[in-house]
Amino acid sequence: MGQTLFCMVTLLLLKTIFSCGHAQDAELTHEPNSTILFHGESVTFTCNMKEGRHSNWYYKFHRNGHQIVSNPDVSNFLQLHLTTDLSGNYQCTAYHKDSPSFIKQSNNITLFVSGMLLLQSLLLSFHNPQIRQ
């Protein structure tokens, strides 16, 4: 009985340890919802918490594993005006205001920023005369 109780307590402790910390209870979304965007366009990322209110958290946004901005004003969104060098893998991390060691990391979003918007528009116009009118 003592050994069984020890095993149950150990399993409960391990479950508690692994369910805290870097749980993925934050969802990163973006608008427009496309993986290919163009130089000169804007994209808005939003870090949505799956628990509690978004104002209870501090947010940091990352591209390719490097922090690009930290929003101490508890803003859960980030707007970027795109250039081709902003292609990459985006993620947000949320830190609870009352317990900064309580961290939530979001899913990853990969964006490709193309510099071809002008060329695409010209080709579309050339191949479709109705657009030129």
Automatic annotation (TrEMBL):
Statement: the UniProt record of this protein carries the keyword rRNA-binding: no
Coiled coil segments of this chain: none
Pfam family, one: Ig_2
InterPro entries given in the database record: Ig-like_dom (IPR007110), Ig-like_dom_sf (IPR036179), Ig-like_fold (IPR013783), Ig_Fc_receptor (IPR050488), Ig_sub (IPR003599)
Annotated keywords: Disulfide bond, Signal
Signal peptide interval: 1-23
Entry annotated with the keyword Transport: no
Ig-like domain sequence ranges: 26-110
PANTHER family registered for this protein in UniProt: FC RECEPTOR-LIKE PROTEIN 4, IMMUNOGLOBULIN FC RECEPTOR
Name the record gives this protein: Ig-like domain-containing protein
Provenance organism: Ameca splendens
